[in-house]
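Query structure, 189 tokens:
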């Protein structure tokens, strides 16, 4: 699996930052209401880049999308391997979502402007399933790929770092450009 993260964090380090309950933060981040470290990852490099860098890139007139150098400054693409199986709550299909009281895929496909609501759902899921070590769901930008969030207060496996690539230069930038081309995104230095 892969993740895009700030250089401030080691590849295997969980983010301890508490999100605002209503206004800013990730889909299933911790808040004052439920404190935990979290680590988001994608099934592969493409998924990690889509989720971390492309989720809020708007479609311009004529179908163009642009990603700026500033958006990737200080970002690292890391490949990780789990040392053991982990227990995840699946949000991957209609039956998974229906079992949890969701009538459609809103929980995993809504825009970031609605993440205040999804954070509350994430906290409820953690309460309902206290042994779950994280969640898995389809990527919003590429539903054929899986996205993960792991909770440090429940995580039983270790994360082994296979590779780290800075996305703003060298081999990491080349990898980024290859992936952006697949998703028809123009990189603007």
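Result returned for the query:
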């Amino acid at each position: 699996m892969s993740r895009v993260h700030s250089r401030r964090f080691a590849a295997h380090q969980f983010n301890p930052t508490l999100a605002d309950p209503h206004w800013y933060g990730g889909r299933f981040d911790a808040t004052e209401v439920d404190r935990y470290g979290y680590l988001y990852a994608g099934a592969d490099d493409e998924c990690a880049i889509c989720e971390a860098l492309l989720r809020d890139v708007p479609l311009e007139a004529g179908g163009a999308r642009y990603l700026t150098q500033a958006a990737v400054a200080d970002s690292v693409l890391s490949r990780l391997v789990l040392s053991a199986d982990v227990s995840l709550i699946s949000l991957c299909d209609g039956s998974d979502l229906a079992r949890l009281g969701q009538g459609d895929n809103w929980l995993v496909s809504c825009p970031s402007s609605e993440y205040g609501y999804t954070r509350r759902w994430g906290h409820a899921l953690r309460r309902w399933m206290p042994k779950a070590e994280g969640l898995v769901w389809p990527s919003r930008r590429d539903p054929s790929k899986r996205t993960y969030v792991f909770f440090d207060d429940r995580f039983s496996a270790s994360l082994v770092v296979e590779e780290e690539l800075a996305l703003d230069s060298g081999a990491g930038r080349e990898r980024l450009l290859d992936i952006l081309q697949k998703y028809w995104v123009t990189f603007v230095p």
